[in-house]
Amino acid sequence: MKTTTIDEGFIRRVYKTSAFVWGFGVVVALIVSGWRTALGWTFGSAISFGTMWSLEWIIKRAFVPGNDRARSNLSRFSMLKLPIMALVLAGVVYVGAKTTPHTVELLGYFVGFIAGVVLTQGVIFLKVLGMLICEHFND
Questions:
Q1: What whole-number distance in Å separates Cα of residue 20 and Cα of residue 125?
Q2: What is residue 28's predicted lDDT score, i.e. its pLDDT?
Q3: Alpha helix stretches (DSSP H) within the chain
């Protein structure tokens, strides 16, 4: 299997790598900063995974040739997704504010959360960068 191209299995590999990085990140957060940062990292990673999964789900269903109804479904999904994400983010902020009594711990929680939100995007970026580097040196 050639892994230097973006093929059908690319997204599956991104999920696997992201899950490994999430687990490693939890261990690092627990050791360095404590459970609140690990909790923020976990919430952010869950949002990152959920966003990627929802995009994958809707793209597989909406971009079907000859399906005019799929385009309207994409619009409805997009309109529904934004309020849901706003509620989830509000819940994360609420949980963070209620569970962290000190400002430093709250900062760690939010730094972990923000890092978790960009987890899958970071994995995709690094995988593509690795592909480009391998392609450059193989030529």
A1: 16
A2: 95
A3: 10-32, 35-62, 68-99, 103-117, 119-138
Domain spans of the chain?
A: 27-62+69-126
Per the structure block, which two tokens stand in for 27?
Answer: 């261990």
Asked whether the beta carbons of 45 and 18 are under 8 A apart, the reply is yes
Cβ within 8 Å of residue 99, ≥6 positions away? 36, 39, 109
- Looking at per-residue pLDDT, the higher value among 37 and 72 belongs to 37
Burial of 48 (0-12, 13-18, 19+ CB in 10 A): buried
Contact call for residues 113 and 25 (beta carbons, < 8 A): no
Q: Which residues of 14-26 are buried (b: 16+ CB within 10 A; e: fewer)?
A: bbebbeebbeebb
The string of pLDDT tens digits covering residues 1-24 is: 455 677 888 889 999 999 999 999
133 class by beta-carbon count within 10 Å (0-12 exposed, 13-18 middle, 19+ buried): exposed
